[in-house]
Prior knowledge:
α1 packs across α2 (81-91) and α4 crosses α5 (158-174). With 322 residues, the protein is α/β, with parallel strands linked by helices. It is globular and about 55 Å long. It has an eight-stranded parallel β-sheet, sandwiched between helices. The chain is built from eleven helices and twelve strands. The model has no long low-confidence stretch (mean pLDDT 94).
Amino acid sequence: xxxxxxxxVMTVTGPIPVDxxxxxxxxxxxxxxxxxxEFDIGAGPSFGEMVERCVDRIEExxxxxYASLVDPCPIDMARDVNLMxxxxxxxxxxxxCATGFYHGEIGAASHWRFxxxxxxxxxxxxxxxxxxxITEGVGETGVRAGIIKTATGHLVTPxxxxxxxxxxxxxxxxxxxxxxxxxxxxxxxxxDNLCGAGVGAADVVVGHTCGSKDPVYQRAxxxxxxxxxxxxxxxxxxxxxxxxxxxxxxxVRAGFGHRIVVSHDCVLxxxxxxHLRPERRDFMLFERTISPMLxxxxxxxxxxxxxxxxxxxxxxxxxxxx
Length: 322
Ligand SMILES: [Zn+2]
């Protein structure tokens, strides 16, 4: 099923025309922390320090011609929409924030699992919360989510299936697209659940598809009409950038260049004791290193630009036909 066409994208400072997105990184984070971070030694940088750091990194991106990023931090991973709004205003850069929850291995599953034991309406309540964040805003901030994040871990558990159902319900009720976290597997099961509930595949970015080393898996997702996220460039544990670049070019050559979005999954600030390597804060890796790698492998400048501009725009626009 195809969504209705969307003419605007909701950013943390309000709606913008989809054409105003420009060059867009589809999966980056200003701030991340796993539930329980508040019990760690030290909370990480102050609000002011985080703003400074994020604005610095975004200024660099802006000077390279980028205009927008999606920060799909789920509700339960220390999402801070006030930080996003402040950084967006200070830097003059579009940021799209998400509603939705992380997977059961790391996210705030306890609350919802406990609730679901007592209240059969829990999936409905979760959908209502997502819809509220899309239509009215996050808490009292007035900042509205422009995308729904959902996630699966190494297994797709009943908790995650419940979240996928709530995600589909909220997406259909508000005509809002979806971006997912995967561990490089089970994107097919995510689509089975979301599309089975009526969501169009083109309204889904299957995140971290570049974490898979299986070209059949990657291609099958694109063939179903979903967008595939090559959104972890620079993330060493999951795969090498050489493998990612090879796989991306293979997908373009197979005719799926219109289904790929790119990013790094950087984390600029971290709640709790900061263990992140400096290269996980490099928003410029795609521009500086990956884009030339793709050109060396034969992509034209236009084919690379399409990954950054046309594909994010078409994803947010929806009502997409091949
Ligand atoms: Zn992420």
